[in-house]
Design a protein that fits this description.
The structure holds 2 protein chains of 2 kinds.
Chain A: H1 2-18, E1 30-35, H2 50-59, E2 79-84, E3 90-95, H3 109-120, H4 130-134, H5 140-145, E4 155-159, E5 162-166, H6 174-177, H7 188-194, E6 211-217, E7 221-226, E8 240-245, H8 249-257, E9 263-266, E10 280-292, H9 305-312, H10 317-325, E11 330-331, H11 349-352, H12 361-375, E12 380-387, H13 396-410, E13 414-421, H14 423-430, E14 439-440, E15 442-444, H15 452-455, H16 473-482, H17 492-508, E16 512-524, E17 528-529, E18 545-546
Parallel strand pairs in A: 1-8, 12-13, 12-14
Antiparallel strand pairs in A: 2-3, 3-5, 4-5, 6-7, 7-8, 9-16, 10-15, 10-16, 11-16, 17-18
Helix pairs in contact in A: 9-12, 16-17
Chain B: H1 2-27, H2 42-51, H3 58-72, H4 87-122, H5 127-141, H6 144-158, H7 176-202, H8 205-212, H9 217-254, H10 260-269, H11 273-301, H12 303-308
Helix pairs in contact in B: 1-11, 4-5, 4-7, 4-9, 4-11, 5-7, 6-7, 6-9, 7-9, 9-10, 9-11, 10-11
Classes of the chains: A alpha+beta, B mainly alpha.
Chain lengths: 547, 311
C-alpha cells in the first residue's frame, strides 16, 4: 500500500514539473488589460454599462474624440470639421472622406443618421435613448416616445459626407456628447444583414477605428487586433489589445505581478504595494458619491436644514478616501466633480466654486443644538441606506460604518441605523415613486460635460432622479435660467457664474452632502505609455505605445 | 432493474417539472427589475417591460414560460447580456466548462478520497492514518476560496507550473488548479466516510472468515471490504455534487473560469430572469441525474437494495 501511495505522489509531482513552461508572448506588441466585469453588449444602441462603452470605443470612432488634454478638436474623430449656426441650434459636420469600415464600405453621414434613429427607435426600447434627450435633438422626445416617426429626428445626411444636426435649444455640451458611444455610427446594410446576430461576435461586427474585434468569449476574453483599414493605421503603435475578465482582485494582482498583464485596476486593500512605484497610476473618474436626504420621509430630522448641516460637518471625508477606499478617489469638495466641465477660460468648475463642508465637530455640534431646539427633541434616530459591498462598487458599507461612528460621537443623542441592501433594491427604495429611506449613500455618473448633469438632473423638483424629492421653486427657477434656452444660456461667462451660485444655493441648505469623487488605482507596466484616461470620456488606446 | 430505473426516471421528470413551476413563482418575489439603470425614465421602463413581455398578466407569462421551455427548450433571451442572445447560447458553452471541471473534481476527489480512506482504515492508528485524517480535516475546514488562492499563489505564482487563470488556449492544463481546489472538499468527505465505514466492515465476522481462509490482505480489502464500504461513499456523492456546484461559484471566480457560476451570480444581481431560470433548471437537472445515477449504482453494488425496492 505504501508503494502505491508513493507512486501516486511521485506521479503528481511529475505532472506538475512537466508542465512548467510559460508560453512566451510573440514579438507582437499586444496590450494586455484586465477588466473586473464582462462586456454586456457590443451593440452601441443597446449598451448601458461602462465596460461595454469602453470596449465600443476601442473599435468605433465617433464624430469627435478627447485628446490627451481633454480637448475635443476637429479632426480628432470621424468629423474633419464642423460649423455651428449663430443661434447654436444647427451643427453641420463635414466627415473625413478616407474613413472606411473594416469591410471596406466608406463611413458616411447616413451611418450616423441610421445609428441615431436606431438609438431613438421605440421598437428597440433602448435604455440609452435618453442620450437623445440630453442632446436636445429636434423632436427627440416625441420620436423616442413613438408619437413622431423616426425620420422626424433632428439629424439628416445632406450628402454622403455632410451631417446636419438640429437641436431644440442651444446645448453647451453638445460636442462633448458626440464622444459618447450611443452616438457612434452604424453601417445600416451590415446591421440589417446581421439581424439578430448583430454584435454577437467578430463576424457580426464592423470597425471604423484603430482596432477590430477578433475574438469574444463571453465572460472570459475580448481580443482586438490592429485595424489595417483604419485611415490612421500607420500612427497606431500597438498590434492589438487582449482584454481578460478577472473578477477576483487577488487573482488580478497575481497575474499582474507575474507579468501576464500590462494594465489592471487594483482594489484599495491591495494597492499599497504599488504606491511609489513606476507602475502606480491613480486616475480620476466622474462618479460623485453623495448623501441625499429624503424630504418625503416621515422622519422630521432629515427635513431640518440644521440637522443636515450638522451631519455634513460631523465626519472627515478625507479619512474615508484615504483609509477606507484608498483607490485614487478624492474628497468631493462640491456636488459637481473635478474635471467634468471648464469655463470659457478653461478653468475647472471646482476651481471657480467654493469648497463645501469639512470635518469640524464644534460646528457640527452647534448645528445639532440648533436642530434640537427646532425639532423639540434631543434624540434622533435615522436610517442610512447603503448597497452591499461587491454589488455596489465603492465599498460604501465601510464608509457608512465610519459615518455612523462619527455622527453618533459628534452629535450626542443621534443614532444611525445602517441598512444594507443590494444595489437594485437600494435604487428601488430611493426612486421617487417609492422614497422609502431617510438618508442614503449613492453615486451619480455624469451624462454630459456640464454642471447641470448634477445640479439639474438630481435636484430639480421635476427630475426622475431627484432622490431627496426636494421641492424648491426658487431653485428650479435658478436652474431654468442656466439651462438650454434659459435667460443666461447665451452668455457663457454669466452662465458660469450663475452655475456656481446654483450649486451654492443647494449645498448651503445641505440638500445633499457630497462625499467623494471616484478614482481608480491603476497599475501600468513602466514600458507602456500613452493610455489616455478621461473623467467623462472613455479610455483611448490610439496613442498607446509599448517599448 | 429496468422497471426500477423507469420508475426513478419518471419521478425525476416530475420533480424537474415542479422545479420549473417553483422557479417561476420564486422569481416573482425577487426584488427589483431587470431594468435597473438609475438613469432609466418611467416611460422607458414601460417600453422595456412591454417589449420583453414583463407587463403581461401573471398567467399569460406563466403559460408562455412553460410552453416555450417544455416544447422548444427555449428559455428566451437574456435581459442583460446583449438583449438579442438566446439564453441557451449563453449558458450552454459556459455549462460545458463548469461541468467538465466539476466532473474532474468529482473524479479526482473521489479517487483520492477512496485511496486515503483505504490507507487510513487499513493502517488504523498508525502515522499513515493520522496523516490521512489530518488531510481530511484540512480539506473540510479550509474554505475553498482560501484554498484556491493558496494553490494559485503557490503553484501559479511562486512556482509557476500552472497558469493562474483558466486559459482557452490550454484548457486541460489550466483547469488542473481549479480541479484540485474544487476536489479538496470531496476528497476530505470521502476519506472520512470511507475510513469509518471500512473500519467497521473490516471488523465484521465475514471479513474475519475470509481472513481465516487465508486470503491475502489486499484481496480482503479490495474485493470484500471496499465493495461493502463503498455504499456509504455513494450515498454522499449526491449531496457532494451540490457542494461542487456551489463551490464552483468561488473557484470559478478565483481562476477566472468563464463557467455558469459567475453567470448565475450576475444574473441574480441584475434580475436576468431567463438566465436564472435556465441555470437553476440545469443545476436541478444535474443534481437529480446524480441522484438517479447513485440509486442505480446502489443496485449494482448492493443487490439487497434492488430487491428491497421490488425491482
Amino acid at each position: 500500500m505504501k508503494k502505491i501511495l508513493i507512486f501516486i505522489l511521485a506521479s503528481l509531482l511529475f505532472v506538475g514539473c512537466s508542465s512548467a513552461t510559460p508560453t512566451p508572448e510573440a514579438a507582437k506588441k499586444v496590450l494586455r488589460v484586465a477588466y473586473s466585469g464582462d462586456v454586456l453588449s457590443l451593440d452601441s444602441s443597446v449598451a448601458t454599462d461602462g465596460v461595454s462603452f469602453e470596449v465600443l470605443t476601442a473599435f468605433t470612432e465617433g464624430l469627435v474624440e478627447y485628446d490627451a488634454n481633454d480637448a475635443m478638436l476637429p479632426g480628432s474623430g470621424a468629423a474633419e470639421s464642423w460649423d455651428v449656426s449663430e443661434d447654436g441650434l444647427e451643427y453641420v459636420f463635414n466627415l473625413k472622406k478616407d474613413a472606411v469600415w473594416s469591410n471596406g464600405d466608406p463611413v458616411t453621414a447616413h451611418d450616423f443618421v441610421f445609428a441615431w434613429r436606431r438609438l431613438a427607435d421605440p421598437a428597440m426600447a433602448n435604455e440609452y435613448s435618453m442620450m437623445i434627450l440630453n442632446a436636445k435633438l429636434k423632436n427627440g422626445e416625441a420620436v423616442v416616445a413613438g408619437t413622431l416617426p423616426l425620420d422626424q429626428l433632428g439629424v439628416e445626411a445632406v450628402d454622403d459626407y455632410t451631417l446636419k444636426v438640429t437641436l431644440e435649444a442651444q446645448v453647451p455640451w453638445f460636442i462633448a456628447l458626440m464622444t459618447f458611444p450611443s452616438f457612434f455610427p452604424l453601417n445600416e446594410k451590415f446591421v440589417k444583414e446581421a439581424g439578430d446576430n448583430y454584435a454577437t461576435g467578430p463576424d457580426f461586427l464592423l470597425s471604423n477605428s484603430a482596432f477590430v474585434l477578433t475574438e469574444w468569449i463571453q465572460g472570459s476574453k475580448i481580443v482586438f487586433a490592429k485595424n489595417d483599414k483604419y485611415y490612421d493605421a500607420d500612427k497606431i503603435a500597438i498590434d492589438g489589445i487582449d482584454i481578460t475578465v478577472i473578477a477576483d482582485p487577488q487573482t488580478v494582482k497575481l497575474q499582474y505581478d507575474q507579468g501576464n498583464l500590462d494594465v489592471a485596476a487594483m482594489s484599495g486593500d491591495l494597492v499599497s504595494g504599488y504606491v511609489g512605484t513606476d507602475d502606480f497610476t491613480p486616475i480620476r473618474k466622474g462618479y460623485t458619491w453623495f448623501m441625499p436626504f429624503n424630504q418625503k420621509s416621515p422622519n422630521a430630522a432629515v427635513k431640518n436644514e440644521n440637522f443636515r448641516l450638522a451631519i455634513a460637518w460631523a465626519f472627515d471625508r478625507s479619512f474615508i478616501v484615504d483609509e477606507k477606499l484608498n483607490d485614487g478617489s478624492i474628497v468631493a469638495d462640491g456636488f459637481v466633480p473635478r474635471g467634468l466641465a471648464s469655463s470659457a477660460q478653461g478653468e475647472d468648475f471646482r476651481d471657480t466654486a467654493p469648497k463645501y463642508f469639512g470635518y469640524d465637530p464644534a460646528k457640527s455640534l452647534a448645528y445639532w443644538e440648533a436642530a434640537k431646539a427646532e425639532l423639540g427633541t434631543d434624540k434622533v434616530t435615522f436610517e442610512l441606506l447603503v448597497g452591499t459591498p461587491g454589488d455596489d462598487s465603492g465599498l460604501a458599507t465601510g464608509a457608512a460604518e465610519y459615518i455612523k461612528a462619527e455622527v453618533e460621537k459628534n452629535m450626542p443623542g443621534v443614532t444611525v441605523n445602517i441598512k444594507t441592501v443590494l444595489k437594485k433594491e437600494r435604487l428601488e427604495l430611493m426612486n421617487p415613486s417609492r422614497g422609502e429611506y431617510d438618508v442614503a449613500l449613492t453615486r451619480w455618473g455624469p451624462d454630459y460635460a456640464d454642471p447641470l448633469t448634477y445640479l439639474q438632473d438630481l435636484l430639480v423638483s421635476t427630475s426622475n432622479y431627484n432622490y431627496g424629492q426636494w421641492v424648491d421653486p426658487a431653485y428650479d427657477a435658478l436652474v431654468a435660467d442656466v439651462a438650454p434656452g434659459g435667460a443666461f444660456a447665451a452668455d457663457a461667462d454669466v452662465r458660469w457664474a450663475k452655475l456656481v451660485e446654483v450649486e451654492a444655493y443647494a449645498l448651503n441648505k445641505a440638500v445633499v452632502v457630497p462625499m467623494w469623487q471616484t478614482g481608480a488605482a491603476m497599475v501600468i507596466k513602466p514600458n507602456v505609455d500613452g493610455i489616455e484616461y478621461h473623467v467623462l470620456g472613455l479610455t483611448n488606446y490610439k496613442r498607446t505605445t509599448i517599448k | 432493474m429496468l422497471k426500477f430505473i423507469t420508475k426513478r426516471f419518471f419521478w425525476s421528470m416530475v420533480t424537474l417539472f415542479t422545479i420549473l413551476i417553483l422557479l417561476f413563482l420564486l422569481l416573482q418575489f425577487l426584488p427589483g427589475t431587470p431594468f435597473n439603470d438609475e438613469k432609466l425614465s418611467e416611460a422607458s421602463k414601460a417600453l422595456l417591460n412591454a417589449k420583453y413581455g414583463l407587463d403581461q398578466p401573471f398567467f399569460s407569462r406563466f403559460y408562455i414560460y412553460m410552453k416555450n421551455i417544455l416544447t422548444e427548450f427555449d428559455f428566451g433571451i437574456s435581459l442583460s447580456i446583449q438583449r438579442n442572445w438566446m439564453v441557451k447560447n449563453i449558458v450552454l458553452p459556459r455549462l460545458g466548462i463548469s461541468v467538465r471541471i466539476g466532473l474532474q473534481a468529482l473524479a479526482l476527489g473521489t479517487g483520492m478520497g477512496v485511496l486515503f480512506g483505504v490507507v487510513s482504515a487499513s493502517n488504523k492508528n498508525t502515522w499513515l492514518d493520522t496523516m490521512a485524517t489530518v488531510v481530511a480535516i484540512i480539506g473540510v475546514s479550509i474554505p475553498s476560496y482560501v484554498f484556491a488562492l493558496l494553490l494559485s499563489y503557490t503553484f501559479g505564482y511562486k512556482l509557476p507550473f500552472f497558469s493562474i487563470i483558466f486559459d482557452f488556449s490550454d484548457p486541460i492544463k489550466s483547469s488542473i488548479l481549479p480541479t484540485i481546489a474544487l476536489s479538496m472538499f470531496v476528497m476530505a468527505q470521502v476519506t472520512r466516510f470511507l475510513r469509518t465505514e471500512l473500519i467497521e466492515v473490516l471488523g465484521s465476522d465475514y471479513i474475519r472468515l475470509v481472513e481465516a481462509k487465508g486470503v491475502n490482505r489486499f484481496k480482503v480489502i479490495a474485493r470484500h471490504g471496499l465493495r461493502n464500504a463503498l455504499i456509504s461513499v455513494i450515498t454522499i456523492l449526491g449531496p457532494l455534487t451540490v457542494t461542487l456546484l456551489t463551490g464552483s461559484l468561488v473557484v470559478e471566480k478565483v481562476y477566472a473560469v468563464p463557467g455558469i457560476g459567475s453567470l448565475l451570480v450576475n444574473a441574480i444581481l441584475t434580475n436576468d430572469y431567463n438566465v436564472i431560470v435556465m441555470i437553476a433548471f440545469v443545476y436541478s437537472a444535474l443534481y437529480i441525474t446524480m441522484n438517479l445515477v447513485v440509486d442505480i449504482l446502489y443496485g449494482i453494488i448492493d443487490p439487497r437494495i434492488r430487491v428491497a425496492k421490488g425491482a
